[in-house]
Write a structure and sequence with these properties.
Blueprint lengths: L17 E2 L2 E2 L2 H8 L4 E5 L6 H12 L5 E5 L7 H13 L2 H6 L11 H12 L6 E6 L7 H13 L4 E7 L7 H6 L3 E5 H4 L3 H10 L6 H11 L3 H11 L5 H7 L4 H15 L2 H9 L6 E2 H8 L4 H10 L4 E3 L6 E4 L1 H14 L4 H14 L3 H10 L3 H17 L3 H9 L3 H6 L1 H13 L3 H14 L5 H22 L2 H12 L11 E3 L2 E2 L2 H17 L3 H17 L3 H18 L1 H17 L6 H16 L3 H14 L6 H17 L3 H17 L7 H14 L3 H10 L2 H4 L2 H13 L3 H12 L9 H17 L3 H15 L6 H5 L3 H9 L7 H10 L23 H9 L6 H8 L3 H15 L4 H10 L11
Parallel strand pairs: 3-6, 3-7, 4-5, 5-6
Antiparallel strand pairs: 1-2, 8-10, 9-10, 11-12
């Protein structure tokens, strides 16, 4: 595409208009206005991309319809990028109504953010533009693939304008073939001689035609070169002579002009520009610090007004940045003139940022100064805060910049690396770094040794939690919380006389409470979770608060399912206010809610809650909760009339429980339900064998006695069933926090007595079961062992529970029958089993027009692997074709709804 024609009506060049020092370019404005769904503005640095787009938005009156997003330099954090995208879209009139707010959180999933954004914009009716400047700075491959997915699936009314220094690898060739891509390249952005003359005249520079022609030939209309030339020509007595001498390659020209521009500035301005070029952004205070002078803000404002490649970043004009190329050249000049000053400048900047609450920039400058000790201390001191503030990816990036020998010699950095390996699931590597950290403790200065021990305790707590070694979690948390100087304490202090930070205290309390939940230390868990949640709320750590509430809901469910459901909803609502609805920890809350709904016979609500938990919960991070998830799924499948599916879910839960170092609180109850499911499937001999191989204490437990009673009833031996149940009913075998099991015990007793024609005993047992079930509306035992005739007779003879019995009977009548062999079991539950993370990633691409090989290219997988994932997705959704999978996934909320097309 050649240079865009700016001619007047009869082909005669019209006089270009200059506003605010910017040449108005109607030809390019028209190209942008009539562009397809995606416009790519691709040209080298200094070609005028940003100025063009900003002036077009202003001239076209699109201020409220264009979302402007400049990508930060070398952006590698997908979370920060997507939060910026959402923030920019919310600044538009339409986006402010449709795009929900989202708060940073640890492990925020960019793929989930894209789906969320597609859902929000599905109702978009008015056209808006998402203008992303400096897309080439987006160095995260994952974020690029996510952006490509958004571009491919976005509604027609969302237009993209992407400005970059080089062509993007976003699959734009497909849009080109479909006629939906508009491209503006360097040739289109080149200034014409008429535009150049208008630019120089606006700057008060008058050149002869020959001088203008020479400048045009040598700059080839390059915007930055022309701007630099205009700055250098200003005030010269013989501008034509300067223009004639202006020549050389782009780098040579840029360096020459830099010297010419700098020489035109005052000495304080030159010193400020050079010494602050080490910063990505600068304010007056920083400028004064690095120059040793004063009045830096005033100088910066003057430079901006003069158009000296200094741009204000805020409305108050207190923060500024330099044009990228200008900053690069300033740094080149600084390295050539004052190389010895660089470490000191970076070190001073690091201290300033540390003192002003910007640990990320502080660490970066300490690393640039190669002050590894300062960088390590700063990163370690702020590690927890960065993680809890949703900047985990940034913290990992900073850690990765340390040389290997520095990490090996620093106990705290080694411990942090162990945490990174845990995040990636590399438990063996985590152990290696923990060993390295422990060995390095002796070399830690005395003033920080106690803090290093705290860091080790935190990482060990995480390792123990991922292994399911719950007593070890409790041990590390207790050591963190023990008073300094107590026997066996890690002395959790930050420094002389300072108690452990409140972030870590809240984290330790909540982790300790979680460990106690899954090891049946319910009273302790209740106390610690309540304390941790209250502290998290007080110090403004909502993510920790959600984490505590989600696990507290699980604990409270064992005492009262309605109370647990209430706490679950509280956690879900709090997460929703921060945009964390798809975070794994929220899956724990959905899990507790789903199980509560199962126990109350509210099966549709249970399916919805458990389905959300299955989509978000990460079993590798929450193995104990993962076991509970499959257990809850099995419970729902059983009372939905699908015992085969229930058995599969129970066995998956059993396998997960087997991976835990400590026996899960629910392990015995899970085995009882598994045996009862086998009984329902007619495998009574298998159950007899399993019971015979079981240890006496477990076989005599209340949960197993319920299973034995179910077995004897299936064997038509109700008398033996009553014998098995007797110790449970008379209280000689206790069931702690197991009201659901007590209801089942009395209900099984009623069924057995009814079979023995012991009418009075049967009625008493039914009434006792209903008495226990009534306060929480526990329908589950009556659905698990259905006997509607017995309930009908009991109601006719009179009962205090005339309202509860119809609820049970209605639930029994509405239950779906077992699916016939070979039929996909998906009418009620949606998925035959949860999708894996890899399958979910492939699912995201199914609504696009990409073929399997193209999807493989996007995900860096083999074609066969992608096809295998697609087959698994189809099977789990119960469909046979790609379009059916997309429709079903949308119906289940796994994909955003299709965007409206005009």
């Amino acid at each position: 595409m050649g240079s865009t024609d700016q001619s007047g009506p009869a082909g005669t060049p019209s006089a270009p208009v200059v506003r605010g020092g910017v040449v108005v370019r109607p030809g390019l404005f028209g190209l942008l206005a009539g562009a397809g769904r995606v416009t790519e503005v691709s040209a080298p640095a200094g070609s005028g991309k940003t100025v063009l787009l900003r002036s077009w938005i202003g001239e076209a009156g699109l201020a409220e319809r264009a979302a402007w997003l400049p990508v930060q330099g070398e952006e590698r954090d997908p979370q920060r990028f997507w939060l910026s995208v959402l923030g920019a879209l919310r600044e538009t009139a339409a986006g402010s109504k449709l795009v929900r707010p989202l708060t940073a959180a640890p492990d925020l999933d960019g793929w989930a953010v894209v789906e969320r954004l597609l859902t929000d914009l599905g109702r978009l009716e008015d056209r808006i533009w998402l203008v992303i400047d400096d897309v080439h700075e987006l160095h995260s491959d994952e974020a690029q693939r996510q952006l490509e997915l958004l571009v491919m699936r976005a509604p027609t009314e969302l237009r993209f304008v992407l400005a970059t220094r080089h062509d993007l690898r976003l699959g734009l060739h497909r849009l080109r073939l479909e006629g939906e891509l508009t491209e503006i390249r360097a040739a289109d952005l080149r200034f014409t001689p008429h535009e150049e003359r208008a630019l120089y005249r606006a700057a008060g520079i008058h050149l002869s035609d020959s001088a203008l022609g020479m400048l045009h030939d040598r700059t080839e209309g390059w915007a930055a070169g022309l701007r630099l030339a205009a700055l250098s020509l200003a005030g010269r007595p013989d501008p034509d002579r300067f223009a004639a001498e202006f020549s050389g390659s782009e780098r040579t020209v840029a360096e020459y002009l830099l010297a010419e521009v700098l020489e035109q500035q005052s000495e304080p301005a030159r010193r400020l520009l050079l010494r602050t070029s080490v910063l990505d952004r600068v304010n007056g205070e920083l400028a004064d610090l690095l120059t040793g002078g004063s009045g830096g803000e005033r100088v910066l404002q003057q430079l901006e007004q003069a158009g000296a490649f200094v741009t204000a970043l805020d409305a108050r004009r207190s923060w500024f940045r330099y044009h990228r190329m200008f900053a690069d050249l300033l740094q080149l000049e600084l390295r050539g003139t004052e190389p010895a000053e660089l470490p000191g400048l970076h070190a001073a900047a690091a201290r300033w940022y540390a003192d002003h609450g910007d640990p990320v920039e502080a660490v970066r400058h300490a690393q640039a100064a190669e002050d590894w000790g300062l960088a390590a201390r700063l990163l370690s001191d702020h590690w927890v805060g960065l993680g809890l503030g949703g900047l985990g990816a940034t913290a990992y990036e900073l850690l990765a910049r340390f040389p290997a020998h520095v990490i090996a010699a620093d106990a705290e950095l080694a411990a942090r690396m162990a945490g990174v390996e845990l995040f990636h699931g590399s438990l063996a590597e985590a152990e290696r770094y923990l060993t390295m950290a422990a060995q390095g403790l002796a070399s830690v200065p005395a003033g920080r040794r106690e803090r290093s021990q705290v860091i080790l305790a935190v990482v060990r707590m995480r390792l123990a939690r991922q292994r399911g070694d719950l007593p070890a979690v409790a041990e590390q948390a207790q050591r963190l919380l023990a008073p300094a100087g107590a026997a066996g304490s890690t002395r959790p202090v930050w420094g002389a006389g300072q108690a452990v930070g409140e972030d870590l205290r809240a984290l330790a309390l909540i982790n300790l409470g979680i460990a106690e939940v899954w090891t049946a230390r319910f009273d302790d868990a209740d106390r610690h979770l309540e304390q941790g949640i209250a502290l998290a709320h007080r110090i403004g750590r909502p993510f920790l608060e959600v984490t505590g509430l989600a696990h507290w809901a699980q604990l409270l469910s064992w005492r009262s399912f309605p109370l647990g459901a209430e706490r679950s909803r509280q956690a879900i609502q709090l997460a929703g206010r921060h945009g964390w609805t798809d975070e794994p920890v929220v899956g724990v809350a959905h899990l507790a809610l789903g199980v509560a709904m199962v126990t109350q016979g509210r099966l549709e609500e249970a399916e919805q809650a458990l389905g959300q938990a299955e989509r978000t919960l990460r079993t590798e991070v929450e193995p104990a909760a993962g076991m509970r998830l499959h257990y809850g799924r099995g419970m729902l499948e059983f009372v939905s009339g699908r015992p085969d599916a229930a058995l599969d879910a129970f066995r998956t839960a059993e396998r997960l429980a087997g991976r835990l170092v400590t026996e899960h609180t629910l392990a015995r109850r899970l085995r009882s339900h598994l045996l009862q499911t086998l009984v329902r499937l007619g495998e009574t001999q298998r159950v007899e064998q399993d019971l015979a191989e079981m240890g006496r204490p477990e076989r005599d437990s209340g949960e197993m006695r319920n299973a034995i009673a179910a077995l004897r009833l299936a064997q038509d031996d109700p008398k033996a069933a009553t014998v098995a149940l007797a110790p449970v009913l008379d209280g000689s075998v206790s069931l702690t926090n197991a009201h659901l099991w007590e209801v089942q015990a009395f209900w099984l007793e009623a069924i057995a007595r009814d079979a023995l024609a012991e009418v009075g005993a049967a009625r008493r047992a039914v009434e006792r079961a209903l008495n226990l079930a009534q306060p929480e509306d526990l329908l589950y035992p009556f659905l698990f062992d259905p006997a509607p005739g017995l309930l009908e007779r009991h109601r006719r003879h009179g009962t205090a529970h005339a309202a509860l019995i119809p609820e049970i009977l209605n639930a029994l009548a509405g239950r779906q029958p077992t699916a016939p062999p070979g039929h996909e079991r998906r009418t009620e539950r949606g998925l035959t089993e949860p999708l894996s993370q890899s399958e979910i990633r492939v699912l995201h691409y199914l609504p696009t027009k990409l073929s399997a090989p193209e999807i493989a290219d996007q995900l860096y997988l083999s074609v066969n692997t992608v096809k295998t994932h697609m087959r698994h997705v189809y099977d789990k959704l119960g469909v046979h074709r790609r379009h059916e999978a997309v429709e079903q996934a949308r119906a289940l909320g796994l994909l955003a709804q299709a965007a409206r097309r005009p």
